């Protein structure tokens, strides 16, 4: 499909009253770029401030002096904005609908008044454990209401939460506890998911063996399953919550005080702690939630992500709750008990906005339309996708079978680093094209740069690397404990710009099409994985001498993980060893990092200076070895023949 000819979909009927129409988009976008202080000064007022800001934007993208501040003299509390301020008008409105893994279990409807009670008590439990303003709290919880209580409780007392996705291994958890210097880990006994149970507490036990013995473990007894219990270290949160006061005064926080740290993979081995701060992040999460999904008072909003990812932070918790919405938290998986679960839940709770990942759509698409057709989806108004480019087949299926052609599809491009959507359609303003994230959100100035000259490419069409020319309030502020790494990763290669790590093209209409990562990061089922991270896990195994990991196209996951492994001298490449290495990576990082294909590589293609030629490895993994380009600079060109002959992906 050529981009020029790409079919444009008109805005469906019924969006005349949308928050943003085509004319408003043009006008407000221009204002947001020409006068950011006026635009964001106004938008900042969507929050309640204890002390209003007098300064709006103070940002510098110059390498060596990068500094990003928004609303810097304002004082507020994020929890108050998500909870307390709604009590006057919405005390009895449902804030969170909790839909359990097992469809036979009853859903919970947690009102704003109940949310307030739980969050205040949770905050008092944290205080009683010695957690203070600025302390880090690691949250290793499944998708249960306590995850929301824990996040908001941290925000209330000014502690910095760092959620570790419950699918990560004990080692990955320990690394994050140690890097953040957390005082407390919050976990649950066990977590039901798709009818099976994950032993979270025992993972936390294993992780804490590698952490300071001062780290406390707060345990939510969710299923009641037996776990080990270490007196003096482990605390029964629900029990403690009964005994503490239901009032915990919110801590006034500076707009630039960190709200949370979230670890994400980069092109080097060690995940980095992305730091988001209080004021700008919350303004941006609330605003994008309202405009991108055309969220209106009374709507039921469902984002299917896990709170362990940024999508869950911004669009299950902070954005919707800042807007006084009803947000749905789903504990389960799309295919349990069958492939109709998402649609059953949409019908049951009359969901108005539904936000998921292309990988989930592709998986459900394969199960047939009968699972969709049997549920009443007439409440749906807007559909969203996030995480990776959506292929036109999946887009069309989503549009036809889920949206019945009546729901705009918002393909939202953004990153952990950006806090909220940067390029996305707005339901009442933007005509869509399947596979394109379309146009920038307010205040966002995308530039396509030539990768070699680092110069912006003006005019349409254009293709190159995607950079952003100026700051927006939801931007990350630093890497936890390593501002130098922050500057080097995002501001060094393309001076004066924020570098996204994505390739992109802009078509004749000025629409943006993300073409995928241009760094050593791969996107597996919408989750970001650093190839270096998987490599370091592999080489940590005693039988592995060297490993190189690349992505390759995978029909369901978007990208699959392809590992080339060189074994130690004398070690036999067996099927048992292959299985052992897969298991090894699962334990070192987590199931999402498990290689899909492992190829035994007697040698890896390297330059004479010893650098692995990943370009060649990528081509072979993609089964596209006809055009390897110049291999004359290789130290041993013959290894390439061997790798091609024994390649694993022959699709
Ligand atoms: C990377 C960020 C932000 C939420 C989930 C992932 C890719 C994300 C899209 C989209 C094409 C997308 C990019 C980006 N990505 N959304 N709509 N179309 N690609 O967050 O783990 O920080 O990953 O995901 O490559 O850089 P993340």
From TrEMBL:
Residues 84-471 form the AMP-dependent synthetase/ligase domain. One of its GO terms (cellular component) is cytosol. It is an enzyme of class 6 (ligase). Residues 25-82 form the Acetyl-coenzyme A synthetase N-terminal domain. Belongs to the ATP-dependent AMP-binding enzyme family. Catalyzes the conversion of acetate into acetyl-CoA (AcCoA), an essential intermediate at the junction of anabolic and catabolic pathways. AcsA undergoes a two-step reaction. In the first half reaction, AcsA combines acetate with ATP to form acetyl-adenylate (AcAMP) intermediate. In the second half reaction, it can then transfer the acetyl group from AcAMP to the sulfhydryl group of CoA, forming the product AcCoA. This is Acetyl-coenzyme A synthetase. It comes from Paracoccus seriniphilus.
């Amino acid at each position: 499909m050529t981009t020029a000819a790409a079919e444009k979909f008109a805005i469906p009927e019924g969006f005349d009253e949308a928050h943003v129409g085509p004319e408003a988009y043009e006008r407000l976008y221009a204002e947001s770029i020409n006068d950011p202080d006026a635009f964001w000064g106004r938008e900042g007022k969507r929050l309640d401030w204890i002390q209003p800001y007098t300064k709006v934007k103070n940002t510098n993208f110059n390498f060596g002096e990068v500094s990003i501040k928004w609303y810097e003299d304002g004082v507020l509390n994020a929890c108050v904005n998500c909870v307390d301020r709604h009590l006057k008008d919405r005390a009895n409105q449902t804030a969170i609908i909790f839909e359990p893994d097992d469809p036979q279990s009853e859903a919970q409807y947690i009102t704003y008044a109940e949310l307030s009670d739980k969050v205040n008590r949770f905050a008092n439990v944290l205080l009683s454990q010695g957690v203070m303003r600025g302390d880090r709290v690691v949250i290793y919880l499944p998708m249960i209401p306590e995850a929301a209580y824990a996040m908001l409780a941290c925000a209330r007392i000014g502690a910095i939460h760092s959620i570790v996705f419950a699918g990560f291994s004990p080692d990955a958890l320990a690394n994050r506890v140690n890097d953040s210097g957390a005082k407390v880990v919050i976990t649950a006994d066990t977590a039901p998911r798709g009818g099976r149970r994950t032993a979270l507490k025992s993972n936390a036990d294993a992780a804490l063996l590698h952490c300071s013995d001062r780290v406390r473990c707060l345990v939510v007894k969710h299923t009641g399953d037996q776990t080990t219990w270490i007196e003096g270290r482990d605390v029964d949160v629900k029990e403690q919550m009964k005994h503490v006061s239901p009032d915990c005064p919110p801590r006034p926080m500076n707009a630039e005080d960190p709200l949370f740290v979230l670890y994400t993979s980069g092109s080097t081995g060690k995940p980095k702690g992305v730091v988001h701060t209080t004021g700008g992040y919350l303004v941006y999460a609330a605003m994008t939630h309202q405009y991108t999904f055309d969220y209106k008072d009374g709507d039921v909003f469902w984002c299917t992500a896990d709170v362990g990812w940024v999508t869950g932070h911004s669009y299950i918790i902070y954005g919707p709750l800042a807007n006084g919405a009803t947000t749905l938290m789903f504990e389960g998986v799309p295919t349990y008990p069958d492939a109709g679960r998402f649609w059953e839940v949409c019908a049951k709770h009359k969901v108005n906005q539904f936000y998921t990942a292309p990988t989930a759509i592709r998986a459900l698409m394969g199960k047939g339309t009968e699972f969709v057709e049997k549920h009443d989806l007439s409440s749906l108004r807007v559909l969203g996708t996030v995480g990776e480019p959506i292929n036109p087949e999946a887009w069309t299926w989503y549009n036809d079978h889920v949206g019945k052609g009546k729901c705009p599809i918002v393909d939202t491009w953004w990153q952990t680093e950006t806090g909220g959507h940067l390029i996305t359609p707005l339901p009442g303003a933007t005509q869509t094209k399947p596979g394109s994230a379309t146009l920038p959100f307010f205040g966002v100035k995308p530039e396509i740069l030539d990768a070699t000259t680092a110069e912006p490419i003006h005019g349409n069409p254009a293709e190159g690397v995607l950079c952003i020319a100026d700051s927006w309030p939801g931007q990350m502020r630093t890497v936890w404990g390593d501002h130098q790494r922050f500057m080097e990763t995002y501001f060094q290669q393309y001076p004066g710009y924020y570098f996204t790590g994505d390739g992109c093209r802009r078509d004749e209409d000025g629409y943006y099409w993300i073409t995928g990562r241009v760094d050593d990061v791969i996107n597996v089922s919408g989750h970001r994985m650093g190839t270096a991270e998987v490599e370091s896990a592999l080489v940590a195994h005693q039988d592995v001498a060297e490993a190189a990991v690349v992505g390759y196209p995978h029909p369901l996951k978007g990208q699959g993980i392809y590992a080339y492994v060189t074994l130690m001298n004398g070690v036999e490449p067996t099927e048992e060893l292959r299985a052992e290495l897969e298991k090894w990576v699962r334990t070192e990082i987590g199931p999402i990092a498990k290689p899909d294909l492992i190829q035994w590589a007697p040698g890896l293609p390297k330059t004479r200076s010893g650098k692995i030629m990943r370009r060649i490895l990528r081509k072979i993994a993609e089964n596209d070895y006809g055009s390897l380009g110049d291999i004359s600079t290789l130290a041993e060109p013959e290894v390439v023949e061997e790798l091609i002959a024994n390649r694993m992906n022959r699709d």
